[in-house]
Design goal:
The protein is an alpha+beta fold and 190 residues long. It has one domain. It is 53% helix and 13% strand. It is built from nine helices and four strands, in the order ααβββααβααααα. A hairpin with a 2-residue loop joins strand 2 and strand 3. The protein starts with a helix and ends in a 5-residue tail after the last helix. The chain binds zinc ion. The site of zinc ion has 6 residues, from helix 3, strand 4 and helix 5. Zinc ion (ZN) binds next to helix 3, strand 4 and helix 5.
């Protein structure tokens, strides 16, 4: 029986592991993970987008062209998450498969705080991979069960606290989406 979904999932998992290895994301000397450098090395141009609410940001690809635009009114930690999330889409093949469907079209994904959108499997998978990239296994090994608070782990990884909670399976996809919405709509005027 042909199960293409499983093959894609396995290929995506391999791409994520290869990325972690290629950029030494488990190396404590490189924490917090410089996700902007990783994106640049992967061929992304990352631009400040100002207030993009209800979006955290979006990414477009066309052939080898890759560009992200970030909502720069949300806290820095959320901007880092957005870069990792869009990078994850590319590692998962989400952007590529869409490009193959119509190579002549600019393909876009958006990280939207609109209710329910993040709950779709592809979006949640990208957020979980973003958490995996930004919060290394080795960081969790060093901190969990050592009396280090989740807030301190978030600080060391330079990520929003809800991303640590998502990584550890402590909050639901719905709660994570709620936290993202709060960050998008509570962003102070710059
Ligand atoms: Zn997405």
């Amino acid at each position: 029986m042909n199960i293409p979904g499983d093959r894609v999932a396995s290929r995506a998992k391999h791409a994520v592991q290869a990325c972690i290895h290629r950029y030494h994301l488990e190396d404590p000397h490189r924490w917090p993970v410089d996700i902007f450098r990783v994106a640049e090395a992967e061929g992304w141009e990352v631009l400040a987008g100002g207030d993009l609410a209800p979006m955290m940001g979006w990414a477009t690809t066309c052939g080898t062209f890759r560009r992200m635009r970030l909502n720069t009114r949300v806290p820095w930690a959320w901007q880092r998450f957005t870069v990792a999330h869009e990078l994850a889409h590319a590692l998962h093949g989400d952007l590529v498969s869409l490009t193959e469907a119509d190579g002549s079209l600019m393909v876009a994904t958006a990280l939207t705080a609109t209710r329910g959108r993040l709950l779709r499997d592809q979006e949640m998978a990208a957020s979980l991979t973003a958490a995996r990239l930004l919060i290394p296994d080795a960081l969790l090994d060093q901190t969990l069960g050592q009396g280090v608070t989740l807030e301190e782990i978030a600080r060391r990884a330079a990520v929003p606290l809800p991303l640590v909670q998502l990584r550890l399976g402590m909050i639901s996809a719905t709660d994570f989406l709620r936290a993202m919405r709060a960050a998008v709509f509570a962003a102070p005027a710059s």
